[in-house]
Amino acid sequence: MITNIFKMMLVGATAFGVSGCADKADEIGAAYVSPMHFQAMSCQQLAAEAQGTSARAQNAFAAQDKRASSDAVAVGVGTILFWPALFMIKGDGAHAAEVARLKGEMQAIEAVNRSKSCGLALG
User: By residue range, what is the domain housing residue 27?
Assistant: First the structure.
């Protein structure tokens, strides 16, 4: 009886922990960003904007992936060794929103790049 209760608690804690985990950056979808913001830019300005956005995206992706790894470790420790570790899970938040926004910006820049035939090698 007690082992069944313990098993149910362990399954519940695992489900709780996994549901709150941060996603890896590549699992986060792009947020919509209007290409109109970039439409007035020249191809040279668009290239500079793409380069700056790409650099910011790399930093944001690294931070998000680090958060996802930390959450995965907390779930592992929490379900196997010490269940209060599950409360250390940070989940998605501002970092994930930043990743989504930057992905959206890159998609908008790519759309303007195509429409203006700038020939920038993005991606």
Answer: 2-116
